[in-house]
Amino acid sequence: MLTQRKEYILSIIIAEYIHTGLPVSSDTVARKGLGVSSATIRNDMNELEEFGYLSQPHTSAGRIPSDKGYRHYIGSLMGDARLSLADQFMIRHQFHQVRREVEQWTHLAAAILSSMVHNVAIVTLPKPYEPRLKHVELVSLQEFLALLILILKEARLKQHVLTLENATTQEELSTIAQKINSAFSGLNSSEISTNDMQFSVTEEQIVKSVIQLLQSEEEEPYEDPYIDGLRHILNQPEFSSNNKLAAVIELFEQKRLLKSLLPQVLTEDGVQVFIGGENEQDIMRDFSVIISKYGIPGEVSGAIGVIGPTRIQYNRAIPTVYFLSSVMSELLSELYR
Amino acid sequence: MLTQRKEYILSIIIAEYIHTGLPVSSDTVARKGLGVSSATIRNDMNELEEFGYLSQPHTSAGRIPSDKGYRHYIGSLMGDARLSLADQFMIRHQFHQVRREVEQWTHLAAAILSSMVHNVAIVTLPKPYEPRLKHVELVSLQEFLALLILILKEARLKQHVLTLENATTQEELSTIAQKINSAFSGLNSSEISTNDMQFSVTEEQIVKSVIQLLQSEEEEPYEDPYIDGLRHILNQPEFSSNNKLAAVIELFEQKRLLKSLLPQVLTEDGVQVFIGGENEQDIMRDFSVIISKYGIPGEVSGAIGVIGPTRIQYNRAIPTVYFLSSVMSELLSELYR
DNA sequence: ATTAGCACTCTCAGCCTAAGAGTGCTAATG
DNA sequence: CATTAGCACTCTTAGGCTGAGAGTGCTAAT
User: Fold this and answer.
1) Which end of chain B has less Cβ packing within 10 Å, N or C?
2) Contacts of B137 in chain A (CB under 8 A)
């Protein structure tokens, strides 16, 4: 257990370090009006270091928080900050300014998050747990070429260009589409494939494509994430050495990061925080990820989060991610009922 | 006019500088087997500098090519390099491996270009000159909510969620869609808006949305470009100082670059090269852009290009951009007839 | 026209130093 | 016993200096 003063000192150091990025000296803490001298604080800081909450870049520098320090800060010291009502209002306003489309929303959410936290934001499109066919449309492009459009239950589109085995007119395609719609609307891929209807060659081919598209939607666990605010990362002093930078940019471009993170995020509720070395990827040792699931339980879900150096403003990032994930969830349930 | 030897010296210097990124000394050139001494070459280099083809970082360094030097190299010295047949085959093969969809193609083209030239590739989706309605689909989401799907002439989709003024069933929506399709298929926005048909309130509202969507497609001169290979830029030695880097990344993220470049690209044929200071944006002083239009003349067009430091491998970048733009054009005309 | 030779210029890495920041320890204090 | 003033010690950093090296431009000779 830490004494109250040590807790206080720790929180001052973390707040200060998050603000400046520079190691914090005992003098700096003393000037915050604790009523004790810098020597006393030095003793406390020494113990905080022994307990693993702080570390020293070198003997004659101040202290910086360790991963454990941040973790304690988030758990006990930070308090549960809420977004100001002004911010909440501003965000809601922006969402209502935008066309009512899921993709627009995700892009807007990323833009807001990245600009409010001054770091890289990352958002995936919401994905249904079990894709079901709502409607099929077939459009003739050429004699042997047709565009197959799948509308899924949650108003998501999939499209695919088909090379037909037999020449087919638009009328024929429309008839086929009607047949498929009346027979399969509301079903998932396995339900469709266990039908016992009689099909022509062309119909057979199209139904097969429908099933394939639905299956590919099932298998791919989430869409390519959308990323915004890469520029912020360049202003962080911790990345003035640019070989680290290269690794990070590559991480983002190849989206490996999300692949390792999303499985965890999608199974748990609430805002999750991964600090520095708690991340799997070793390139992520110097980063923290603050991320949350959003969506409608049991129906669709996506993830929204922000990534920055470990000294990211947790007390701003956490409530912002929380609020944005709530707003996205609300909007989705309005749209899908 | 330059003597033949001076031309040769210039081309050696440019090739060498593109390869190493280091100023090229008279000694280095002499060792390339010209049969004259370094002193002679120094004299020539001096003149080349006076004519503006070369410049010197400082008195006791070698020479580096100026923008004018690169320009001359591309125009006269480089020869018209073609992509090797092996490369051509490899590229075509990759395109046939991929699903027949325009978006896939653009992503693949960007990936190939960026990895072959080791720089940032940028591709826009092809955009029709005059969007025409091919087909409309209406899907009921809730009583007062419908998804409007526009299929444009070139098999491009646009979607929009409508809040209906009157409660409407799927049957009613389908009837409306049929009415719109038979009346307006093949027309552009202004032709649709000058109709004199009688509409119900709901029909009126939907037709208005269709017109709006078509118009927004007309006005927006091109889609958000797709970017690949950002990571390459970090390995360029000229960006070890990272304040320049920040400006560049920002340029890419906000896509301002394309906004200033595309109008020129889309009006001219063939591969275009913008070297350093020839670019409008001053951040681009240190960059060259090699870019080309692709598409079907008079119907659809997009752009594909690559961006790198002025010492980019022009003799690889130019033929690669050229070949990729041809392949994309071919694929599109196969798809659209 | 070409070239050997050489003085001159500029950069760069390495080394040193002094200033400054911050600590940890010791001894004194209420 | 917790606190604190005082101070020696450590480490970083910016600045100045230096010598080596690279490359040039000029001159005089061929």
Assistant:
1) N
2) 135, 137, 149, 151
Q: Give the pLDDT band (50/70/90) at residue B242.
A: low
Q: For residue B234, give the nearest of A99, A240, A246 by CB distance.
A: A246
Residue nearest to nucleotide C10 (CA to C1'): B60
pTM (2 d.p.): 0.90
Helix (H, G, I), strand (E, B) or coil at B282: helix
A49 touches strand C (CB under 7 A): yes
pLDDT tens by residue, B50-104:
999 999 998 889 999 999 999 999 998 888 888 999 999 999 999 999 988 888 9
pLDDT of B281 higher than 80 = no
If you average pLDDT over each of A186-195, A215-224, B11-20, B210-219, which comes out highest?
Answer: B11-20
Q: Do B137 and A134 touch (CB under 8 A)?
A: no
* Nucleic acid strand D: bases within 7 A of protein CB: 3-6, 9-12, 21-27
Residue B208 vs residues A66, A102, A230, B88, B193: alpha-carbon distances, Å: 59, 22, 38, 47, 8
Instruction: State mean pLDDT over B270-277.
Output: 92
Pairing of strands A226-228, A120-123: antiparallel
Q: Which residues of B touch A139 (CB under 8 A)?
A: 134-135, 151, 155
